Amino acid sequence: MLRVFFKKEYQIQSLMQRYLDELKLTKEHFLQALNSYFDKGLCEEFDFLLNQTHKAESEADDVRYEIETLMYSKALIPESRGDILGLLEALDRIPGLFQLLLYMIQNQKLKIPDFLVQDIRELTTVTLACCDLLCKEVEALFKKTEDIKALVQSIDTNESRCDHIERQIISKIFDSDLDPFEKLQLKEVVIAMGDISDQADRVSRRIYIISIKRRV
User: Fold this and answer.
1) Residue environment code for 115-147, b if the CB has 16+ CB neighbours within 10 A, otherwise e
2) Contact 124/193 with Cβ under 8 angstroms?
3) Contact indicator for 189, 122 with CB cutoff of 8 Å
4) pLDDT for 199-211, tens place per residue?
5) How far apart are CA 40 and CA 49, in angstroms?
6) Closest by alpha carbon to 203, among 122, 121, 126, 136?
7) What pTM value is reported for the model?
8) End-to-end Cα separation, the chain, in angstroms
9) Contact 196/131 with Cβ under 8 angstroms?
């Protein structure tokens, strides 16, 4: 019986690593799509990279379903099962946000003014740093490879920086002579980018609570 239990525990850890791999791939395609957009605007390359982002996000969904199916087959005690399923649900919003932001740009035919490009690139960099740290934190939860508390603090610091950059960009948008409708479109995109770091911070805190419960 114990052998079966630990085998399923190992399967869950393996699947979680696969999920993180797909999350990282979604993030990479998302970044490539944004860089293409900043350099060339809306083009075939952007459309291709958006499609790659969508495929990776779909693969992450499939792995999530595998994990949920395995966990409902009594792979873990109910208390642990609830924690991990809740974590997975919260984590899975991030690849969805990557995809959503790219679709917003594509569907609304957005053009980022030159005076905002550098700031939005910086916001993107710090946002994705939050996601990289979050992946390390998930791995630390399962493999005990790093100090979770230190990772939580780093993510919180980056998320606060994202908030600061986000406010600066929105101020620049509304101080500009852009068309009022265009201002609202750009604000929506900036807020969507901020939602990614906000979600990373929420997931990070959830992981920390799970790690504390495991020590009690």
Assistant:
1) ebeebbeebbebbbbbbebbbbbbbbbeeeeee
2) yes
3) no
4) 999 999 999 998 8
5) 13
6) 136
7) 0.90
8) 25
9) yes
* Residue 77 contacts residue 10 (beta carbons within 8 Å): no
Instruction: Please report the DSSP string for 1-26 in residue order.
Output: -HHHHHHHHHHHHHHHHHHHHHHHHH
Closest residue by Cα to residue 200 from 74, 51, 55, 23: 23
Phi and psi based region of residue 131 (left: phi greater than 0; alpha: psi -120 to 50; beta: remaining): alpha
Of the candidates 138, 155, 132, the one whose C-alpha atom is nearest the C-alpha of residue 64 is 138
Structure tokens at 111: 């053009």
pLDDT of residue 77: 53
Is 68:88 a contact under the CB 8 Å cutoff?
yes
pLDDT digits (tens, 9 = 90+) for 33-85: 999 999 999 999 999 999 999 999 999 999 999 988 887 776 555 557 788 88
Query: What one-letter code names the amino acid at 91?
Result: L
125: phi then psi, degrees, rounded to nearest 5:
-60, -45
Q: Are 101 and 37 in contact (CB under 8 A)?
A: no
DSSP-derived letter for residue 211 is H
Q: Are 130 and 197 in contact (CB under 8 A)?
A: yes
Domains by residue range for the chain, with CATH: 2-215 (1.20.58.220)
Find where tokens 């609202």 sit: 184
